[in-house]
Write a structure and sequence with these properties.
Layout (H helix, E strand, L loop, with lengths): L10 E3 L2 E3 L3 E3 L21 E3 L16 E4 L2 E4 L8 H13 L5 E5 L4 H11 L7 E5 L10 H4 L2 H16 L10 E4 L7 H10 L4 E4 L3 E3 L2 E2 L4 E2 L6 E4 L4 H14 L4 E4 L5 H10 L3 E4 L2 H4 L3 H16 L12
The protein binds flavin mononucleotide.
Flavin mononucleotide binds next to loops.
Length: about 325
């Protein structure tokens, strides 16, 4: 048996055990099928799907993407085929995967979120819900929920009680709340989600940004602003995870700007139990597997046998 075989990479998120801490972030990995030819999806710690909303959404008008010095700006606006098409067209493939699938849920109203979680409760093949209350690219809902602690607590409480009433194993699926960094005090929002009964938190979604085309003298994105992601947001995400993991007792999943193992290790040292790789996948789909390999190497080098103990090194 090699040293690597003795490493415990598993992560506990509520009742769900992730085989390893490296997942792929919502919106950067579609619904899995698109990337299956490019890397072994089964070796991921978790696959967080593109957002699913009650009704199909076309998203925002183009252009929806812009380059920035150390990342990208997007204003996709939660484009997705809607809940019923997700169930009929996407879920059958997702059910064949060997890694946990966590469905990212978004909405314009509290009822939207509630109806999606209720309907998905009768479908098998899902490991949990990631509740997106932090999308900066929609006019209604999204970030509007994620910036008000009272709304966050009420929404999470409602979704948790719907989850609890689901049949069988679906009643134990973790509810993970994805937080926005576009707030004054993220600790307040994190505690509100925890008070509502969230099993875990994901930090961070994108930061609001704008790129202006100086020749046209217009914003590059049709919507004006978009969400900044990629290396530029790494230090912001690490600082948020450091703060939030000390503000709550539930697990925190870190993401934002991870493009190598060292970036992921910063999150794990800051207090995250797991990480997600997002924008980096667009240029290098193999990044999540390289990140996992680098975490293993670090554990061997440092003599840490359980991934959950990395945070104790800080
Ligand atoms: C093109 C694109 C689409 C995204 N769509 C979603 C989404 O549907 N739901 C969500 O919660 N986050 C979405 N995000 C945010 C990412 O999941 C992640 O929080 C953010 O990009 C920061 O991580 P990164 O810097 O590694 O990309 C999207 C990001 C990008 C770049």
């Amino acid at each position: 048996m090699t040293q690597t075989d003795k490493l415990d990479l598993s992560v506990q998120i509520g009742s769900l055990t992730l085989p390893n801490p490296v997942g792929v972030a919502s919106g950067t990995f579609g619904y899995g099928e698109e990337y299956a030819p490019l890397l072994d999806v089964n070796t991921l710690g978790a696959l967080y799907t593109k957002a699913v909303t009650l009704e199909p959404r076309a998203g925002n008008p183009a252009p929806r993407l812009a380059d920035t010095p150390a990342g990208m700006l997007n204003s996709i606006g939660l484009a997705n085929p809607g809940m019923e098409a997700f169930i009929t067209d996407k879920l059958p493939f997702l059910r064949t995967l060997g890694c946990p699938v966590i469905v990212n849920v978004a909405g314009s109203t509290e009822d939207d979120y509630a109806l999606v979680v209720e309907r998905l409760g009768s479908e098998d093949g899902l490991g949990g819900y990631e509740i997106n209350i932090s999308c900066p690219n929609v006019a209604h809902g999204g970030m509007a929920f994620g910036t008000d602690p009272a709304l966050v607590e009420r929404l999470v409480k409602r979704l948790v009680s719907i989850r609890d009433r689901a049949p069988g194993a679906a009643s134990r699926r973790p509810v993970i709340v994805k937080l926005s960094p576009n707030v004054t005090d993220i600790g307040l929002i994190a505690r509100a989600a925890e008070a509502g009964g969230a099993d875990a938190l994901s930090c961070i979604n994108t930061l609001v940004g704008m790129v202006i085309d100086t020749k046209r003298k217009r914003p590059v994105l049709a919507r004006g602003t978009g969400g900044l992601s990629g290396p530029a947001v790494l230090p912001v995400g690490v600082a948020v995870v450091y703060k939030v993991s000390r503000a709550v007792a539930i697990p925190v999943i870190g993401l934002g700007g991870i493009s190598c193992a060292d970036d992921a290790l910063q999150y794990l040292l800051a207090g995250a139990v797991a990480v997600q790789v997002g924008t980096a996948i667009f240029s290098r789909p193999e990044t999540p597997l390289e990140v996992l390999g680098g975490i293993r190497d670090f554990m061997e080098r440092e003599g840490v046998s359980e991934v959950r103990c990395i945070r104790e090194l800080l």
